[in-house]
Write a structure and sequence with these properties.
The complex is a heterodimer of chains A (83) and B (156). Chain A starts with a strand and ends in a 6-residue tail after the last strand. Chain A contains 3 helices and 5 strands; from the N terminus they run E-H-E-H-H-E-E-E. Chain A has helices at 7-13, 29-37, 41-46, and strands spanning 2-5, 17-19, 54-57, 60-62, 73-77. Chain A is globular, with a radius of gyration of 12 Å. Helices cover 27% and strands 23% of the residues of chain A. With 83 residues, chain A is of the alpha+beta class. Chain A has one domain: Ubiquitin-like (UB roll) (Roll). In chain B, strands 1-4-6-2 form a 4-stranded mixed β-sheet, sandwiched between helices. Chain B has a 3-stranded antiparallel β-sheet with strand order 5-3-7, with no helix packed on it. Chain B has one domain (2-152): Aldehyde Oxidoreductase, domain 3 (Alpha-Beta Complex), CATH 3.90.1170. Chain B has 156 residues and is α+β, with helices and mostly antiparallel strands. Classes of the chains: A alpha+beta (83), B alpha+beta (156). The A-B interface holds A 4, 6-8, 10, 56, 59-61, 75, 77-83 and B 35, 53-56, 58-60, 62-63, 84, 95-96, 116, 119-128, 140-143, 147. Chain A: InterPro entries: Beta-grasp_dom_sf, Mopterin_synth/thiamin_S_b, ThiS/MoaD-like.
């Protein structure tokens, strides 16, 4: 699946998007964040405070306990500041 | 007419508003809101040279469209236009435009406020500050609890 990062998560990871293939035990959005954080220091830095990270699956806001099964695109980003 | 646009270019608030009434006689009220980049933001009130707005292409449009649909379910609107800019914007530049049209003013006022309150907290945009003076580096604007509270008022 494709993972997208925005704002300071993008800056910390050093990538706007990447293709990932997490193992089967990665079930929820929170699992995916933990799995990504374990990849390297840049990802660990991006996810060092998971409580402030928001997520979307296929362009819809989701909660950390949402299942990622079937997702084409999972995005991680800080709380929004538009308007 | 219902439209949501995300664009780098400036918008013409008067022309956008006029489009909501063009060719029809059932529109009794148009409420418009324009949000501008302020200079007094910035870290420690040091002043701002610019804001850079990042967005999630695709989701930004879809998320605002979902709230326009919700506004149409709640109020008898004849039209609504939302325009949100991205890229680098300087103090005084318009950032966001919301216009709502209805036969009567109450629906237009309420729907415009509803759309702005949700846009602030759920449309995927992020602002990065570019402080005045080159001495310091900018940071990402943090979300405000008061904006969450404003959006929460509309929960049924």
């Amino acid at each position: 699946m494709k993972v997208l990062y925005f704002a300071w998560l993008r800056e910390r990871v050093g990538l706007a998007e990447e293709e990932v293939a997490p193992p089967a035990e990665v079930v929820t959005v929170a699992d995916l964040a933990r799995w990504l954080a374990a990849q390297d220091e840049a990802h660990a830095y991006a996810f060092d405070n998971p409580a402030v990270v928001r997520a979307a699956i296929d362009r819809r806001h989701v909660k950390p306990d949402s299942a990622i099964a079937g997702a084409r695109e999972v995005a991680f980003f800080p709380p929004m500041t538009g308007g | 007419m219902f439209a949501v646009r995300i664009q780098r270019e400036p918008f013409d608030a008067v022309a956008e508003s006029a489009a909501l009434a063009a060719g029809r006689t059932d529109v009794g009220a148009i409420v418009t809101f324009t949000g501008l980049c302020r200079a007094d933001a910035g870290p420690d009130g040091a002043g701002l040279a610019a804001l850079t707005l990042e967005h999630y292409p695709g989701m930004a449009e879809e998320e605002i469209e979902r709230h326009v649909e919700e506004a149409r379910r709640r109020w008898p609107l004849t039209g609504a236009i939302v325009v949100h800019r991205h890229g680098r914007l300087e103090p005084g530049d318009p950032i966001v435009f919301v216009a709502t049209a209805s036969s009567h003013r109450a629906a237009a006022f309420a729907a415009a406020e509803f759309l702005m309150d949700w846009l602030k907290t759920s449309a995927p945009f992020w602002k990065k500050e570019e402080p005045a003076g080159a001495a310091r580096s900018g940071g990402w604007v943090e979300a405000k609890a008061s904006d969450d509270a404003a959006a929460d008022r509309w929960r049924e």
